[in-house]
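hi! just following up on the protien thing from before. the input was this:
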Amino acid sequence: MGVSRFVRYAGGCYVGQYIHLGGKSAVMVEFAGVTPAVASREEFGALVKEIAMQVAAASPQYATRDQVPADLLDKEKAIYRAQMENSGKPANVLEKIIEGKLGAFFKQMPGGVLPDQESIRDPKMSVKQVLDAASKALGAPVTVTRFARLKVGEASA
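and the predicted 3d structure came back as:
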C-alpha cells in the first residue's frame, strides 16, 4: 500500500473529521475557540459535521480570505481597475466598488473561500452566517482555521 498524502494537525485547536461517499473521501476541519465545554455539546457536534460536509461537497480552497495569495488578489484588483478605468468615478468610490467585486470573487472563484460559500444545507445562508449563528448558540466564537480534504486515489500535490 502506498500513501501519497497525509495530514496531521497538532496544537490547541479542536479537529473534527468526516468520512464521505462510503470512505472515498475524508475531511478534517480545525476549529479555533472551542473549549472542552463547547466541544462536549451536541450542537457543536452538528456544526462540525455540517462544516466538514460543506468542505467535502463544495471543495473550498481557503479557510479564510487571509489565506488567498496576495498576488491573486492583486491580479483581480488590476482587472477590476482596468474595467472601470474610464468611468469617471472618484478614487474612493472605485476602491469601494473593487472591494465589493472582491467579495463576489471570494464566493465565486474556483473552490472559493469557505466562509463566503453558500451553505449546502441552506443556500440562503453563507457558511459565515452558519458559523456566526452556531457561535451565538454555543456562547463562544467558533471559527474554522484550516481544513484538509483527502480522496482515495489522489496524488500528492
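The first helix runs from residue 36 to 39.
The two ends are 18 Å apart (CA to CA).
cheers
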